[in-house]
Structure formats: C-alpha cells, structure tokens
Amino acid sequence: MMDTNLFPYEIVSIEGQRYEGEASLINLKLSDGEIGIMKDHLPLVGIIAISHLTCIKNKEQKIFAISGGILNVTKKKVSILADAFEAKEEIDVNRAEQSK
C-alpha cells in the first residue's frame, strides 16, 4: 500500500553534492528552534543551524549531519541548500575528530 503522506525532499550542498528522497516527516534545527515538517506544510524559508537532520519514511529514519544552510518549503517539496552534509552511515569518525 502506498503511503499518501509522503512528500519529496532534496538536500544539495554548495559543492553540488545531492541527495533526494521521500519522507512523511523531516525534523531539523533552525536558527530559532526545532521544526518538524509534514506533507502540506505551509510555505517557509528558514536558516538551518549546525545540527542533524532526520527524515522519516515508513518508520525508518535517514539521519544526516548538516553544517548549516537554508530551508525552503513549498507546496510541492522541501529543499535544503546545505553548506555541507553527510549521511550518518557515511561519517568517518576519525576524520571528524581530526577536523576539530
């Protein structure tokens, strides 16, 4: 059965890295607090804080580390222009520790 609560989203970095998917809920931290976005959310533009981004689809979570950016919510999709982002499973812990 198709989940009718899904909406498309894309994450694009300044360097051109791209990830696209569908979600029923996206949670992230903006400069003025946390936000949860679901299908048919009102249009919105916001500044993303350095944090993590969680995309939920069919009870499965896709988590990204995100180093700030711009959130754009429209009736058709959610677009995130990130300074940089990385999926949780792709994070190299040793490299991250060295970059501190």
TrEMBL record:
GO terms for molecular function: proton-transporting ATP synthase activity, rotational mechanism. GO terms for cellular component: endomembrane system; proton-transporting ATP synthase complex. This is ATP synthase F1 subunit epsilon. Keywords: ATP synthesis, CF(1), Ion transport, Membrane, Transport. Belongs to the ATPase epsilon chain family. The gene is atpC. Residues 9-84 form the ATP synthase F1 complex delta/epsilon subunit N-terminal domain. It is found in: Endomembrane system. It holds the Pfam family ATP-synt_DE_N. Its main location: membrane. F-type ATPases have 2 components, CF(1) - the catalytic core - and CF(0) - the membrane proton channel. CF(1) has five subunits: alpha(3), beta(3), gamma(1), delta(1), epsilon(1). CF(0) has three main subunits: a, b and c. It is a peripheral membrane protein. It comes from Candidatus Scatoplasma merdavium.
